[in-house]
Amino acid sequence: MTDEIGFIFKKNNNRKALLLFHGLTGSPLELKQYAKKIHREGYDIYCPTLPGHGQYMSDIKSVNWESWLDFSLNHYLNIKNGYDDVYVGGICLGAVIALAIASEEEKISGILALSTTLFLDGWSIPWYKFLFPVGLNTILRYYYSFQEKEPYGIKNPEVRKKMLAMMKNSTVALEYIPLSCAYELLCLSAYTKENMDAITQPCFLAHSIHDDISSIKSAKFVYENISSKIKEFHVFKDSYHLLTMDNEKEILAKKTIDFLNSTSGVSDQETCIKGVLNGITS
Amino acid sequence: MALLAKYSIMALILTNILFVISFLAGKFIYTKNKPESLKSSFTVYIGFLFGFYLIFLATTIILGLFTRIAEYAALFTLFLIIPFVIGKFASYEKLNFYTNIQITVLIISLISGLFLYVRI
Questions:
Q1: Which of A204, A216, A200 lies closest to A258, judged by CA?
Q2: Which of A256, B24, B38, B85 is the most buried (most CB within 10 A)?
Q3: Is A146 an 8 Å CB contact of chain B?
């Protein structure tokens, strides 16, 4: 199941797994360090490259949201029988995919939704976003691309420099985000929002209050609309969109591991109701 | 009201002419060797034109309902909706095909606008 950039971390005796999905126009590399920390705690990690995400923008322009969903669901179905617990998670688009899959597959043990992007309303979205209804819903969406600009979803300047260098080699993210991609993401978001109440699995939400791509409204929407009895919502103050690579990545990893360990083997039928709202990190 | 309708149609015609010319110019701008930033900026410009085009279409339709050109309101309503119908069915693989359809619709709406202007 590996591809050139996707990765698998596996140990023979692990009975728990986590299937992770990267962000829009990103790559599995944005989740690698985060995944390694979780793997050390006894979880096999699967992180494939989503369809259309490679070196060339033309690849991603010809992919639709149904392809992303089918691809991700197939990955889950391929691994689920090999483990006692399988979690799904992701960042940005990956978080939306994880939620969509969870709404269809009850047996998923839990969800990690990082920087969930149901709405494109972050502070770095261009000033002419009022033209989006025209741009997204006409053929113009195939002609326009956002150029990735500062801060590239990262608050830490050192990490941002490294990210920029990797982008130039197209190993982490495309330099431009086609508007047609945003359209497919918003279609997937609409689908996921419609089915949000079917989600009953434990859910871990993490979002930065300063997210430059998608405001905290997305994560709040998920928290308020899922039917999960166990849900955690962690708000980060010193990071931007790419939480897994930014200033609070260690805190994020620790909170994730605590969540995974506390929910492993817990069924949603148990009366352990745990809603952590506004868990403000230091 | 008829005078307002006339001004609205005039504005629609001018925007439409600019729109058609810009879409045709796009055939030279949206090529592989042009920088992505140029293509994106040009698309934003076309987006603004599109916005004005839709606004003037809407005002023509509304004013048309109160004047002798009420029957044209239905036709112009089609021109208002068609870009979004094209957008619904468009795909990257058939982009040229759908773009040509869009340009054709714009030319038809331009001709309709000119015809209507003369009639008023």
A1: A204
A2: A256
A3: yes
Nearest to A138 among B26, B42, B83 (CB): B83
Instruction: Compute CA A17 distance to the chain's CA centroid, rounded to the nearest angstrom.
Output: 16
Contact B43 A180 (CB under 8 A): no
At residue B66's C-alpha, the angle toward residues B60 and B68, to 5°, is 85
ipTM: 0.87
Q: What pTM was computed for the model?
A: 0.88
Q: Omega before A151 cis (within 30°)?
A: yes
| Cβ atoms of B50 and A132 closer than 8 Å | no
A177: tokens are 């985000």
Q: Determine the residue of chain B that is closest to A57 in CA distance.
A: B36
Q: By CA distance, what is B98's nearest residue in A?
A: A139
Contact of A190 with chain B, judged by CB distance below 8 Å, is answered with no
pLDDT, tens digit (0-9, with 9 covering 90-100), for B65-112: 777 667 778 888 999 999 999 999 999 999 999 999 999 999 999 999
Q: Which residues lie below 8 Å from residue A185, measured CB to CB, with a gap of 6+?
A: A24, A65, A93, A96, A117, A120
CA nearest to A191, candidates A122, A93, A55: A93
